[in-house]
Amino acid sequence: MMNNGDTAWVLISAALVFVMTPAVALFYGGMVRSKNVLSTIMQSMFILGMISVEFVLIGYTLAFGSDVNGLIGDLSKVGLQNVGYNLLDGGTVPELAFVAFQCMFAALTPALITGAFAERMKFKGFALLMLLWAVFIYNPMAHWVWGGGFLAQLGALDFAGGLVIHILSGVSGLTICILLGKRHGYGKSAIVPHNIPMTVLGATGLYCGWFGFNAGSALGANELAANAFVVTQVAAAAGLLGWVLVEWIRHGKPTVIGAVSGCVAGLVAITPAAGYVTVLPSVAIGFIGGIVCYFAVAVVKAKFGYDDSLDAFGVHGVGGMWGAIATGLWATTAVNPDGANGLFYGETNLFVAQILSIGVAVIFAVVGSTVLYKIVDAIVPLRADEDEEISGLDLVEHGERGYNTGVFSGTSNIFGGSEEFSLTLFPSVKSSQS
Predict the structure, then answer these.
(1) Inter-residue contact 108 to 17 (CB < 8 Å)
(2) Which of 361, 322, 372, 355 has the alpha carbon at shortest distance from 171?
(3) CA-to-CA distance for 69 and 72, rounded, in angstroms?
(4) Which residues 6+ apart lie within 8 Å of 58 measured at CB?
(5) Average pLDDT for residues 219-236, to the nearest whole number?
(6) Which long-range contacts (CB under 8 A, 24 or more apart) does 362-365 make?
(7) What is the distance between the alpha carbons of residues 105 and 322, in angstroms, rounded to a whole number?
């Protein structure tokens, strides 16, 4: 029978996950240069609209339709046919509530990718690439793990998206940014965030939405949701501490960007494990996640020289891999009887399944993203021209500025007088790095 409390919790969680995509827009928007803030925000907001429609029309049935040879869902639910108000199989919520919840996951995932190639991709090519990526990469992977596909049959566990969302988006982002090439001036002149408070605001939205992301994946207002909620908070806090501690030791100063990045790293790391581990292991999962992701961003990227603009791979890709491994270590049926025991509880099957699943996700992301990139680039050029990149994609692609510049003049009547004044707001800086 339908449970009103469970249904309410799933719908509330869907709303929380919805907030995460605009939050990504702000998080990424603050980290780019001012000339690209609107184009960066637009990518996430456009994805939210485009993928919501795609998911209803074809994505849901490909991900959650009846299994076809462990590879893909059938077309029985195209356009949400045969969904109606029926209960989700074996659950206590209407299937439409599950559709709403999963739709927000599908929209968020490609938005995470945009951080890897920020500031240098044309909008037309971007839109086509992300649409094809959702159809041909995200939907099959969601089916393999959550829809009864071959990774689920293998025994892989991914409570809320370590494999499906974070590894897939992070590795795809790395692949695309390498194929696209580095930004003009990268490694030769400073490219720094233009609005760190905006990034903190976005991180706060992500943090809040993540409780729906993880605890909502219990699909009910129950003990499992409570466990996922608490371990999410603990891992996020530990991730923040881990990143800041290492940064502080290495450079002598803790940074705000480091704090919010560590928080997100901890959230990513706990995502696949949230419904399978107890509270104390979540401290280690988050803390190690913060440290591992810090070194992926501060050391590995510098060593190999790829231009992952906003560290989508370093945080989401690497954090997702660590989280999937940690699930194989600390998962216990004491938390979730439908799960399995990990390596630290005396069993090896889950750990092996997690490692194999990580390999599948990485290979699929690299090969699939490369093929789609080549196809789209042959149809619509993806890389912005050097002059366009120097001018900024806000004006070139959208005809707007995030911050209007110029001199405003007028008459003031402050204190009863009448004085002429002029005010210059955000003076233009004639530099390619402005």
Answers:
(1) yes
(2) 361
(3) 7
(4) 78, 135, 139
(5) 98
(6) 362/167, 362/171, 362/321, 364/137, 364/140, 364/141, 364/168, 365/137, 365/167, 365/168, 365/171, 365/172, 365/175
(7) 20
Burial of residue 45, with CB atoms counted within 10 A of its CB: 0-12 exposed, 13-18 middle, 19 or more buried: middle
Q: How far is CA 102 from CA 11, 19, 56, 75, 303, in A?
A: 11, 14, 10, 17, 37
Query: In whole angstroms, what is the distance from residue 274 CA to residue 271 CA?
Result: 5
For 235-249, how does the pLDDT look when each residue is reduced to its tens digit (9 = 90+)? 999 999 999 999 999
- For the residues 29-44, what does the mean pLDDT come to? 98
Tell me, letter by letter, the H, E, C secondary structure of 27-63.
HHHHHCCHHHHHHHHHHHHHHHHHHHHHHHHHHHHHH
Q: Report how far apart, in Å, the C-alpha atoms of 95 and of each of 2, 44, 65 are.
A: 10, 26, 12
Is the Cβ–Cβ distance between 93 and 87 less than 8 Å? yes
| Cα torsion 28, 32, 34, 39: sign | negative
In this structure, which amino acid lies at residue 277?
A: V
Q: Which residues contact 107 (CB under 8 A, 6 or more apart)?
A: 18, 21, 47, 48, 51, 52, 55
E strands, 106-183, in order: none
Give whole-number Cα distances, 172 to 55, 133, 310, 364, 374, in Å: 20, 9, 14, 9, 13
Query: Any residues with CB less than 8 A from the CB of 338 and at least 6 apart, and which?
Result: none
Query: Among 281, 277, 279, which residue's Cα sits nearest to residue 289?
Result: 281
Segment holding 423, helix H or strand E: strand 419-425
Compute how many other C-beta atoms are within 10 angstroms of the C-beta atom of residue 222: 15
Q: Which residues contact 48 (CB under 8 A, 6 or more apart)?
A: 18, 21, 22, 107, 111
Q: Answer yes or no: are the C-beta atoms of 276 and 157 closer than 8 Å.
A: yes
Query: How open is the CA angle 292-293-298, to the nearest 5 degrees?
Result: 105
7's tokens: 């249904």
- For the chain, list the domains and their CATH numbers: 4-386 (1.10.3430.10)
Two structure tokens written together for 29: 């928007």
**Which SS3 state, helix, strand or coil, does residue 88 take?**
coil
pLDDT tens for each residue of 76-97: 999 999 897 888 888 899 999 9
Nearest to 217 by CA among 336, 57, 313: 336
Contact by Cβ (8 Å): 13, 212: yes
Q: How confident is the model at residue 316 (pLDDT cuts 50, 70, 90)?
A: very high
- Separation between Cα atoms, residue 49 and residue 27, nearest integer Å: 19
